[in-house]
Specification:
The structure holds two protein chains of two kinds. By secondary structure, chain A is mainly β. Chain A is about 0% helix and about 55% strand. Chain A has no helices and eleven strands. Classes of the chains: A mainly beta, B mainly beta. Chains A and B meet through strand 5 and strand 10 of A and strand 4, strand 5, strand 9 and strand 10 of B.
Chain lengths: ~110, ~110
């Protein structure tokens, strides 16, 4: 089992640019979560999917953020346009069901200059 | 929404000393999980508690779930430098489908 795979590991971009983060959950897991981690705000849930359907996106900061899960093995988190305050580590996590333990990917460290 | 308070935010201990972190919720929880994040790493699941008053042990780590299912603790006996990291609780209440993470306790172990 390769675990949850995220790409890229690091992303440095200029403000105003579009950023796309990618995630491949563990096969068989039907829940997928996107988290953002900063020193100031800790781990924040942005959005989660169940069976590829977005269930709760109330944590998405604003319209610049969007997430998709076109199939059970792939999800993207897009920021357009990016801003310096979006700089953070973005984690994707998957789980086998509601309330089940989560498996986190290694994260994408995003720096927006 | 559901909130989970975790204290302390930081803890520095001498190697060999004990360490405890606490999580508290104003609502009754259906389950609580604990995760450890090493510096530069990602959160890794440690354990899940679901029963009132439950106590589970993993070597030097002891996890407790309160009788009212509103609080939990993680205790490490005789800390080692390998225990360094941030410990998070994550809770689910009956009405919520997702976990709410506490703010974490960052543990530093001084050799």
């Amino acid at each position: 089992d390769a675990g949850v795979i995220q790409s890229p590991r690091h992303e440095v971009t200029e403000m105003g640019q579009e950023v796309t983060l990618r995630c491949k959950p563990i096969s068989g897991h039907n829940s997928l979560f996107w988290y953002r981690q900063t020193m100031m705000r800790g781990l924040e849930l942005l959005i989660y999917f169940n069976n590829n359907v977005p269930i709760d996106d109330s944590g998405m900061p604003e319209d610049r953020f969007s997430a998709k899960m076109p199939n059970a093995s792939f999800s993207t988190l897009k920021i357009q346009p990016s801003e310096p305050r979006d700089s953070a580590v973005y984690f994707c996590a998957s789980g086998p069901g509601t309330g089940a333990p989560l498996h986190f990917g290694n994260g994408t460290r995003l720096t927006v200059t | 929404g559901q909130q989970v308070m975790q204290i302390p935010q930081y803890q520095h201990v001498q190697e060999g000393e004990d360490f405890t972190t606490y999580c508290n919720s104003s609502t009754t929880l259906s389950n609580i999980q604990w995760y450890k994040q090493r510096p530069g790493g990602h959160p890794v699941f440690l354990i899940q508690l679901v029963k009132s008053g439950e106590v589970k042990k993993q070597k030097r780590l002891t996890f407790q779930f309160g009788e009212a299912k509103k609080n939990s603790s993680l205790h490490i006996t005789a800390t080692q430098t390998t225990d360094v990291g941030t410990y998070f609780c994550a809770a689910q209440s009956g009405s919520a489908r997702q976990l709410t993470f506490g703010s974490g306790t960052q543990l530093t172990v001084l050799p």
